[in-house]
Amino acid sequence: MPAADLPARGERTAPTFDDKKPRELARYFEDLEYLFTKFQVIDPAEMKKAAIRYLDIDTADLWKTAPEYGDARKTYNQFKVAIHGLYPGSTGDRRYTIKDLELLVSDTAQAGLSSSNDLGDYYQQFLSISQYLIIHNRLSTQEQSRLFRRGFNPELNTRVDRRLEVKYPDHHPDDPFDLAVIREAASFVLLGSTADLAIARTQGQAQATTGNPTTGDPTTVKLEQLAVAVTTLSETVKAFAVNQQGSPGPSGRPRPSGGQAAGQSAGNATQSGGGMLQACNFCGNPNHFIRNCEVVEEYIRTGKCRRDIAGKVVLPTGAFVPSEIRGTWLRERVDEWHRRNPGQAASAQMLFEL
């Protein structure tokens, strides 16, 4: 009798099912059917009894209450459908819901992401649920990207924005980034968070520990910090070369702001004799320079801009105003950047003010 050749309960090759994990029910039946094929079990009654054989007592008693179990006219497949009906969520078409994804995002935002390991765990769970929903036409890729970022706290979101702005300067702000791009930027930011903290503490203070209990080798920590610092410096230099805005030049007069707009600024700020007008590069006032500009200080107080470590006026993200944003004075270009990127002022100022 073929059914007698099936593995006994408890054997290594015997299938198992835990009723507390209903999503595993489909796999349990797959394992059973593999054995049915291997041992040529084709009788519906024997197949039903085999399905009961490997269960614990309580679960077996529950399955036996299904009318399809004792009715010889009912097939094995009809019995299987009835059993799936006892476990909502066990069928593949409703494995995950939008609510499952939103709950994951909410829990992650509340707990916070403080390391690359945290990010990896969140990304794996989010990808599993969201891809399932996308395949079943319950979620779009744009919604996937936006929901993923809701799991970041405001500080992390701001730093990810800065990283993406530096790496993808031509990306339209209305278009969400791909999920993999966002994860890569967040991973880079979290890798550099320890180094940034150490650099900040060395400015006017004795160097303190970074508080990373998972790193035991101080040499490894220093090398990682150095790599992040070099990368950040390189990006800053590139941005400065393209978007430089000047403090006073060798003649004591301010340079015009912003790349290709420099010629326009210079043309608007010249005297009849051809020399450049001594005026503030930020607001255009001829009575002071940008370093003494009260308008700059007001913009800094409201979070619209800040000064970097070299004293240059930069955006609240720490980057220079992109060269494609034109304007006679730097103030006009800063205002235009905020018009294109609303809501960036206050959170970025809190993050980068040391």
Task: Give an overview in words.
This protein starts with 24 loop residues before the first helix and ends with a helix. The chain is 53% helix and 1% strand. It is built from 15 helices and 2 strands. The model is unreliable at 194-201, 203-216 and 244-276 (pLDDT under 50). Helix 6 (98-111) packs antiparallel against helix 7, helix 9 crosses helix 10 (179-202) and helix 9 (154-167) packs across helix 15 (345-352). It has a two-stranded antiparallel sheet.
Helix content, binned percent: 40-55%
- Low-confidence stretches at least 5 residues in length (pLDDT < 50)? 194-201, 203-216, 244-276
Give the structural class: mainly alpha
The backbone outline, from C-alpha atoms, is rod-shaped
Major sheet strand order: 1-2
SSE order, one letter for each helix or strand? HHHHHHHHHHHHHEEHH
Oligomer: single chain
Q: How many DSSP-defined strands?
A: 2
Report how far the terminal alpha carbons are from each other. 79 Å
Largest sheet: 2 strands, antiparallel
Quote the beta fraction.
under 5%
Evaluate the radius of gyration.
32 Å
What is the count of DSSP helices, taking H or I runs of 4+ residues?
15
Name the average pLDDT.
Answer: 79
Features:
two-stranded antiparallel sheet; 2 strands; mainly alpha; 15 helices; 53% helix; 354 residues
Walk me through the topology.
Layout: H1 25-38, H2 44-53, H3 57-64, H4 67-70, H5 76-84, H6 98-111, H7 116-135, H8 141-149, H9 154-167, H10 179-202, H11 218-243, H12 262-268, H13 294-301, E1 306-307, E2 313-314, H14 330-340, H15 345-352
Antiparallel strand pairs: 1-2
Helix pairs in contact: 6-7, 7-10, 9-10, 9-15, 10-11
